[in-house]
Structure formats: structure tokens, C-alpha cells
UniProtKB/TrEMBL annotation:
This is NAD(P)/FAD-dependent oxidoreductase. The keyword Metal-binding does not apply. Residues 349-451 form the Pyridine nucleotide-disulphide oxidoreductase dimerisation domain. InterPro entries: FAD/NAD-bd_sf, FAD/NAD-binding_dom, FAD/NAD-linked_Rdtase_dimer_sf, Pyr_nuc-diS_OxRdtase, Pyr_nucl-diS_OxRdtase_dimer. Its cofactor is FAD. Pfam families: Pyr_redox_2, Pyr_redox_dim.
Amino acid sequence: MRATGTALDVLVIGAGPAGVSAALRAGALGARTALVTRGAFGGMAANDGPVPVRTLAHAARLLREARQMGAYGIEVGEPTLDYRRLLARAGEVVQEVRSHSALRGQLEAAGVVIHEHAGVARFVDAKSVETERGHRLRAGRIILCTGGVSRKLAVPGSELTETHSDAWALTSVPESMLVIGAGATGVQVASVFGAFGSRVDLFQRADRILTTEDADVSAAVAAAFRASGIGVHEGFGNIERFEQTPGGVRMTYSKDGVRQSAEASLAVIAVGWVADTSALNPGAAGVELDARGFVRVDSHLRTSAPGIYAAGDITGQMMLVPQALQAGFVAATNAVRGDVEELGNPVSPIGSFTDPEYAQVGLTEAQARAAGHDVVVAVAGFDASTRPIIDGRPAGFCKLVVHRARREVLGCHVVGERAVDLCQVAAIVIASNMKVSELARLPLSFPTYAGILGLAAARAAHALGLGAREEVDALGV
Ligand SMILES: Cc1cc2nc3c(=O)[nH]c(=O)nc-3n(C[C@H](O)[C@H](O)[C@H](O)COP(=O)(O)OP(=O)(O)OC[C@H]3O[C@@H](n4cnc5c(N)ncnc54)[C@H](O)[C@@H]3O)c2cc1C
Ligand SMILES: NC(=O)c1ccc[n+]([C@@H]2O[C@H](COP(=O)([O-])OP(=O)(O)OC[C@H]3O[C@@H](n4cnc5c(N)ncnc54)[C@H](O)[C@@H]3O)[C@@H](O)[C@H]2O)c1
């Protein structure tokens, strides 16, 4: 067992976005800090989540674009996919992102000692941790940033199912695929493999896919998926079991006493994310979990154990990279300076790189109405805007939810090309409390996707009796 000499001020466990941010902040504040992680630096975000997934989504886009070329006078023939080559490319991208990241250098410059590939770390007591590869580390403050893992289904035969990580590691595109769970992960898996030529069936227990999106977004993405050949089964019932078949796997499920089954080459489970705490032995340090199994934290990101903080997916709060970075910063600030900062509730755009893309920021229409806001809703179709028509991508819409009296945007919901980018602009509008009429009058560049936001704002301003719509429509953005 290798023990570090004197105790550290701060030990951060897990080098995903939350842990890297926490360690950087603690080091920058002058604390003697170490960062210990099971595997490679960067966590899921770099190695198994957004970076490889976005690479596959990009390949899906390239296939789509190759098929569109004929309409623009370019003949290239039907594209074919070499999946092994694509996976190699995803690996290269992960390496490239890693080698261009300034974070490791910044951590070293801040004096943070990095223990990478240390194996699983586990609490010995509330101040010390040991790792599988023999490090023993002691610190006055400990920040838990060990992220999460895919939730398993507790049904017979669940060992026959795969996770999104297994799906990325296939050596060829499966002929067919069942995707179970239609949150951000499930729809991404379904969209990518549908584009690669698998026959995909997406099973969602709730009565609509993407339950955390505006209902119009769920409906539009489901309709687009169906139009592209993906089977979308909403409110399908309960899974009874999985069984091996000669060609792959069979899922048996039932609803209202009626039993049905579906078969495919493989089944991918994407029914949610749970904290990765089993190996950490949090009980030895007095760290309590909540009913869902996430580490319970207060607004300062303090756990139930004095001197132990947690940030990122392990807390079960918004499970996204920017939020993990922010939480790591807050937890480390509090660990070093003494509980001076709260996490707060910043404006948080969310979106996914499916085809079609979808994104949101702020309140959905239903949330705004449930909160008692008197709202005006304005929708601009992509087909009413010049740029999507130029690009041959006229499907989609931008929906604004606007507070009638305050004339401020409460929410923006987009389906279609560059939806995620469009919502970043809307996030700035919301964060700055800009009036919708000011947004409508802003001379956004022409012809752009951001212009659709201006068009929706003009329609909202018109509905509020502010008279901007005709002027903007006349410009034909
Ligand atoms: C398929 C997919 C796509 C996604 N796409 C996006 C996206 O487009 N945009 C976005 O913002 N977010 C996306 N996310 C979510 C995002 O990846 C996570 O919210 C983010 O990675 C959380 O960061 P974290 O630091 O909390 O945890 P992680 O990134 O999971 O890092 C945790 C680290 O802790 C290590 N660890 C775990 N247990 C131990 C232990 N006992 N000892 C030592 N080390 C340990 C792990 O090996 C890992 O390195 C996606 C997620 C998935 C699954
Ligand atoms: N692009 C992105 O930003 C992105 C991509 C992937 C994941 N993520 C993050 O990762 C987190 C986890 O995402 P996720 O999609 O894995 O989980 P999730 O909890 O967001 O979605 C799981 C879905 O599975 C459904 N479900 C639950 N039990 C089921 C069952 N037995 N059968 C069928 N359906 C069932 C739920 O209704 C839900 O819609 C999210 O909070 C998200 O923030 C983000």
C-alpha cells in the first residue's frame, strides 16, 4: 500500500468534468490537492458519453448529407458505412480531444497531483481512501465526483441486454435493435443506429418519448423517427423477460393482460442513470444516499458527512457536462473556503444530436402554465425561414413561451437542424431578461438558423400587440 506522506487539504475522487473542475478550483485556491480516478482522465464525458456519441451522430449526418447531394447536382452514389473504420475514428477523436484539452496542464500548473488508472477508490474512514492499485490517500476535505452508470432492469434475462457503451463497441452494425427507454440516451442510440441501417424499435414505458421535453417536441421527434422507419412504441406496458433466440434476443412484455413480444439482434437498455457508489463504500464515511441511490447533498453540495462534498452525476441533479463543471467549482470553493457558495439554478439549455435535433431552455409550455404564468406561445416553422430552405432542411419549429405581462421569454423549444445551437442563443435571451420585442428587433444575420428565433420572437411580439411580426415577415427571415 502506497500512502501519501502528509494529509492533503482536498482529495477529489473521479476525473470526469465534475472532478476535474473541482480539483482545478481547489488547486487554484492554494489547497494541496490530489485527483484520483479509476480509469482514464476525462470521465464518461470524454471517453464514453458525449464525445464518442457526437462522433457517431456526425457520421449519421454525413450519410444523410451524402444522400442529399444529388438534389444539389453532385453525384456520389449511395454511401456505405464501414463501422469498424467509424469506431476507429471515434477512438481517434477521443484521443484528439484529450490531447488538445488544456485541463491537464492547468491542473499540473495549479499543483494538483493526478492519480490516473488508480483502480476503484473506496473509503476506509471519513478522511481516508484506498484504491485498487494500492494508493492510500488522506485528506481534510473529500469531494465525490464518481458519476453514474446505466440503470439495469430487474427482470429475468436482463443479462442478455446491452448498454449504450456496449452498442458503441459493436464490430458491425446489427441487423435489428430493440432500444428500451426513450430519454436522451435511448433516442440517441435509436437515431444513430436507425441511420446506420439497423431496423430499430424504440420502447418507452411512459406515454410519450422524451418526457422532460415540451409535449410538442416529443410529438415531433416521434413523428420524424416513425417517418424514418424507426418503430416508436409509447406506453407499451411492462417488460416480463428477455430470452436468447437463434438470431439474438426476444423481449416479452404485457399491457392490460395482453402479452406480446419483440425480437432483434440485440436489446439496448437506456432506462436511466444511477450513481456509481457501490464500490466507493460511502457508508464507511457516513455519506447518506437518497431514495434513488444518489448521494444526498444540500445547496452547498455538502453530503451528510462533515467535510465530504459531492458534485456531478453522483448527486442525481442535472446530468450534463456544463452542470457537472459548475458543481465541481462550487463544491471545491466550499471545501476550501468554507461553504460560501450555493449551486443555484442557472439557465440551462439541454439538447441532443439526434436526427432531427431537439433542444430546450427554460420552462415548457405545460410547466409555465402549471406555475400559474399567463403566457403567449408563438411558433415559427423552419419552412417559413430562408436558411433551412436553402439547406433542404425545412422540417422543424421554434416555439417560444413568453410571459404576457413581463414580455420576457420563459422557454424556448426547438426541433430541427441546429436546434441545440439555436437554444444557446435563447439561453442568453432568457438569462439577460431581454424583452421579446427587443429580440424581435435585433438584426440577426441573414440567412441563419438563429434568424428563426427572431421570427418566433416577432410572432410573439405581434401576439402581444407589439406589432413586430409584419416587419420581420416582410424581411423573409
Ligand atoms: C450516451 C450519453 C451521451 C451524453 N451526451 C451528453 C451531451 O451531449 N452533453 C452533455 O452535457 N452531457 C451528456 N451526457 C451526460 C454527461 O456525460 C455526464 O453528465 C457527465 O459526464 C457527468 O460528469 P461527472 O464528472 O459527474 O461523471 P463522469 O463523467 O461519469 O466521471 C466520473 C469518473 O469517476 C470515475 N470513478 C467512478 N467510480 C470511481 C471510484 N470508486 N474510484 C475512482 N474513480 C471512480 C469514473 O471512472 C469516471 O472517470 C451524456 C451521457 C451519456 C451516457
Ligand atoms: N445529449 C445529452 O445532453 C444527453 C445524452 C444522453 C444522456 N444525457 C444525460 O444522462 C442522463 C440519463 O439519460 P437517460 O436517457 O439514460 O435516462 P433518463 O432517465 O433521462 O430517461 C430514461 C427513459 O426511460 C424510460 N423508462 C424507464 N423505465 C423504463 C422501462 N422499464 N421500460 C421502458 N422505458 C423506461 C423513462 O420513461 C425515461 O423516459 C439524463 O439526465 C441526461 O441529462 C444527456
